Amino acid sequence: MKMLFKSASVATLLTLGVCTAAQAADVTLRFSHFWPAVSPNHTEVFQAWADSVESASNGRIEVEVYPGSTLAKPPAQYDAVINRIADMTATVQGYTANRFPLTQIVELPGMVEDARQGSCVVQSLYDEGLIADEYKDTRPLFLFTHGQGHLHLKGKVVEKPEDLAGLRIRRPTSVAGKLLEGLDAAPVGMPAPASYQSMQRGVINGVALPWEGVKAFRINELADSHTEIGGLYSLSFVVTMNTSVYDRLPEDLQQVINDHSGLSWARKAGDVFDKADAAGRADAVAAGHTIVTIEGGANNPAWKPVLDAASEEYINDLEAKGLPARQVYERARELAEQCR
Q1: pTM given for the model
Q2: What Rg, from alpha-carbon coordinates, does the chain have?
Q3: What tens-digit pLDDT sequence spans the chain (340 residues)?
């Protein structure tokens, strides 16, 4: 009797083991990014992408998402994918200086109206091959932008360019930094997650961020004044994958990844950013903050000469290095109209 019970137990365990093995994923992808786990960027873009991939692959691809820079610091996210610390990431191209100079043309003033449109621009530049050479060391899945970046300050109100003189402003990338330098501000380079602590300690007077970032990184808890200069700048992002990891997938699973790449996912990311922008601004309004909206945005006569000069300097610098910056810039301007 004991022998019968033991045999039945072993059979049951073996059956469970077979079922478990059958349900196990063929591959697990570690997806790293720096946004907080509570942000809509994490829940509605990256985790949503992971869930969709798992479903489309019938569970054969498992995606473990690591938010909040748990696998790598923000500036190291791209290299973490190259070095297999992570299998894929969502990151800012401009956090690795001089690696994506043509991509960063979309950061220039007047290029992006909102995240959906900007995402269409940068994804189209990639799809047309104009910036594809900058990504030879990974496999990009989709590119996108945030909406318009603005200025958010504590104890200061900026209404005209002169008001920025000497103010220490967090800048996201060197391109945005050049714009701020032209306005006589003192740009301080740092990734978005470091902004709160730096502003809290008085290291900086304010930040350049979209409204989405103000909410995601809790800047509205510190800032009391916001200056909207429509078209001041925007940032580009990429979701990209280790090439060898992709190449080792069977063809049908590669197709699942391919189906979760390109313009449709770029636009989905843009839509989430645009919704988050509205939420971040609404928080500032509810808190009674001062919001200054510059008439005409980057085309305002008081701001335009400085911003135009910074754009020309950036393009000319790249041309001097033998890069087709003018061609990419002109095509980006055309796409900016087409992608509305």
Answers
A1: 0.91
A2: 23
A3: 443 434 444 444 444 444 433 458 999 999 999 999 999 999 999 999 999 999 999 999 999 999 999 999 999 999 999 999 999 999 999 998 899 999 999 999 999 999 999 999 999 999 999 999 999 999 999 999 999 999 999 999 999 999 999 999 999 999 999 999 999 999 999 999 999 999 999 999 999 999 999 999 999 999 999 999 999 999 999 999 999 999 999 999 999 999 999 999 999 999 999 999 999 999 999 999 999 999 999 999 999 999 999 999 999 999 999 999 999 999 999 999 999 8
Which domains does the chain possess? 16-100+116-145+235-276 (3.40.190.170), 150-233+283-338 (3.40.190.170)
Residue 29 CB partners (closer than 8 Å, separation 6+): 50, 53, 61, 62, 63, 64, 87, 88, 241, 245
Strand, coil or helix: 11: helix
